[in-house]
């Protein structure tokens, strides 16, 4: 039995903190690795900012449409194993990812916090009506009122929803085990959530690169897909 498997099956209340590395096995590029999305463009922070959305909505729309959407991607083994713990009532997932794959894997709504929002939830900025993401990918203009559509995600210069912050802090305060997976853990305020953890909680990270962890944190350096393939879930 692997170290990760032992840790997860001894836990009663797990919080999974996940980032883009969880979805690379589903064919979605990450952001900050040498081959990631941010390595391809000089100013992604501007192109994904509130300022760009307001000043240059067409530029913003084209960048988002052609760089962020992977509607044919499916949850991989990491998503599925995490979902199994969530469905068993043993885990809550707090994710930086906006790709909807945790939701697709069957995580109950009350056990998933999409910290930065969801690309597949679209609304009109003028009338606030929701529309299917397929409609958004055809046009950034709302056919009903002419308003500009956008995804319900947190852009640069925008704040995290209070509800997501509160749910995340509460989950970490109640957890006995925290598993960080697929994230460089340098983007705030997400990385700062660890400071709100139960002081007795075990902290473990599963990542290809070593990341900074609290004292006594356990670093499992390797491929998260291989690690989660070996995880079994006790009935």
Automatic annotation (TrEMBL):
Xref: Pfam families: SIR2
Active site per the UniProt annotation: 116
Lineage top rank: taxon: Bacteria
Class in the EC hierarchy, top level: transferase
Gene3D superfamilies: SIR2/SIRT2 'Small Domain (3.30.1600.10), TPP-binding domain (3.40.50.1220)
Binding site for Zn(2+): 124, 127, 142, 145
EC number(s) given by UniProt: 2.3.1.286
Residue ranges of domain Deacetylase sirtuin-type in the record: 1-235
GO molecular function: histone deacetylase activity, NAD-dependent; metal ion binding; NAD+ binding
Keywords of this entry: Acyltransferase, Metal-binding, NAD, Transferase, Zinc
Protein name per its UniProtKB record: protein acetyllysine N-acetyltransferase
